[in-house]
Design brief:
- This protein is α/β, with parallel strands linked by helices and about 300 residues long.
- It has one domain: 3-Layer(aba) Sandwich (UDP-N-acetylmuramoyl-L-alanine:D-glutamate ligase).
- The strands form 3 sheets. It has a 9-stranded mixed β-sheet, with helices on both faces. Strands 3-4 form a two-stranded antiparallel ribbon.
- Strand 5, helix 4 and strand 6 form a beta-alpha-beta unit.
- Helix 1 packs across helix 7, helix 3 packs parallel to helix 4 and helix 5 crosses helix 6.
- The longest helix has 15 residues.
- The protein is globular, with a radius of gyration of 18 Å.
- The N and C termini lie far apart (about 45 Å).
Length: about 300
C-alpha cells in the first residue's frame, strides 16, 4: 500500500474556473456561471474567484449536493492518485432556469461564450438547446470543451476542442495517421454542423478543421511535459479570447497552441501569466492560485486586444 508524507498542499480553481482564470490572466474580463454546494468548498470557490477578479453567478444548491472537489496526491512531480468528492446528476430544473435567465441577460454584453463541459450536471440538454441559439442570434462565438456523452448536444457551436481520444470515441474512427485524422475531423464537422473543430493531440500539437478549407496542423510548442492537467482549459480560454478580439480561426489556433506549451512543466491546473498585446502593448499581472470549482460556463468580455503569448 503506497504511503505518502504530506509536506504541503495548494488549492486551485478547476474546470470552468480555470478557464476563467486563464482569460483573466490574459487581460480580459471573465464571468463565470455555475453551481456550488452550501459548504466550505463552495465558500472557497467564491473567495478564489473574487481574489482572481472574476465575476461569478453561482447558484447554491444546498447541503445535499457538495461542491465538486478533486484532490490530487503528487509525489516527485508525478500524480499518484486522485480522489473526487462530487454529485454529477443533472442540476434541478430551478437551478437550470436561474442559470438560463442570467445567461440571457449577460450574453449580449460578451465577446465569446465558453462551455466547459466536465460532465458534472450543469451542462444539460435543455440548457444547451436554449443557450446555443441565443448566442447565434447575438453573433457571439461559442467554444465547447466537450465530453463524448454530450457530443451531439453541441450541434451549432462555433468551435469544439476535443482531444484525440475524445475525437476517436465520438466518431468511432481510430486515428493512426494523417488520413484517419482528416476523416475524423471531417466527421465531427458533419456531426455537429459547427464552423470548426480543433483537435488537441498532446505532443503532436493541434489540428484545425474548418468547413471549406484544408486542415491546419500546428506543431506543439511544449518543450517538457510533466502534468497536462488543465491544458485543455488554457487552450479553449486562449482561443476564445483571440476570437473575441477579432482573430481568424487559424490565428486563434496558433495562439492556443502556444499557451499550454509555455506552462506545461508545472503541476496542477495552469493559467497563462504573461502576454504581449499586438494592438495595445503591455503585460498582465499574475492571478493568484485558488480553489477547485463546479462552474461550467464562462463569458468572455472585452475583445479590443489581440494577444500573443510569449
Amino acid at each position: 500500500m503506497p504511503v505518502v508524507q504530506v509536506t504541503g498542499q495548494s488549492f486551485h480553481l478547476g474546470g470552468a474556473g480555470n478557464v476563467a482564470a486563464n482569460v483573466r490572466a490574459l487581460g480580459a474580463s471573465a464571468v463565470l456561471a455555475g453551481v456550488v454546494g452550501r459548504d466550505a468548498a463552495g465558500e472557497r470557490v467564491r473567495e478564489a474567484l473574487a481574489a482572481a477578479g472574476i465575476e461569478s453567478r453561482l447558484v447554491e444548491l444546498g447541503r445535499e449536493r457538495p461542491t465538486t472537489v478533486k484532490t490530487r496526491i503528487v509525489a516527485h512531480g508525478q500524480q499518484v492518485v486522485r480522489t473526487d468528492r462530487e454529485d454529477v446528476a443533472d442540476v434541478p430544473a430551478g437551478a437550470e432556469t436561474a442559470l438560463l435567465e442570467w445567461l440571457r441577460r449577460e450574453l449580449p454584453t460578451c465577446g465569446a461564450l465558453v462551455v466547459s463541459d466536465y460532465q458534472k450536471g450543469v451542462v444539460t440538454a435543455p440548457l444547451l438547446r436554449r443557450v446555443l441559439p441565443l448566442a447565434r442570434r447575438h453573433g457571439i462565438p461559442v467554444l465547447v470543451d466537450p465530453k463524448v456523452r454530450h457530443f451531439r448536444l453541441y450541434r451549432g457551436a462555433t468551435v469544439v476542442t476535443p482531444n484525440q481520444i475524445e475525437t476517436e470515441q465520438a466518431t468511432g474512427l481510430p486515428i493512426h495517421g494523417p488520413a484517419q485524422l482528416l476523416a475524423a475531423g471531417r466527421r465531427v464537422l458533419s456531426l455537429l454542423g459547427c464552423r470548426a473543430v480543433l483537435v488537441t493531440r498532446g505532443e503532436h500539437g493541434m489540428s484545425l478543421f474548418e468547413r471549406g478549407r484544408p486542415p491546419l496542423h500546428v506543431p506543439t510548442a511544449a518543450r517538457e511535459v510533466f502534468d497536462v492537467t488543465g491544458a485543455g482549459d488554457t487552450v479553449v480560454a486562449t482561443m476564445a479570447l483571440a476570437l473575441a478580439a477579432g482573430a481568424s480561426l487559424p490565428e486563434a489556433a496558433v495562439l492556443a497552441n502556444c499557451a499550454p506549451g509555455s506552462s506545461s512543466a508545472r503541476s496542477g491546473p495552469r493559467r497563462r501569466h504573461r502576454t504581449r498585446c499586438g494592438r495595445r502593448p503591455g503585460s498582465v499581472p499574475e492571478v493568484p492560485d485558488a480553489a477547485e470549482d463546479h462552474g461550467e460556463a464562462v463569458l468572455v468580455r472585452g475583445g479590443d486586444r489581440f494577444l500573443v503569448p510569449y
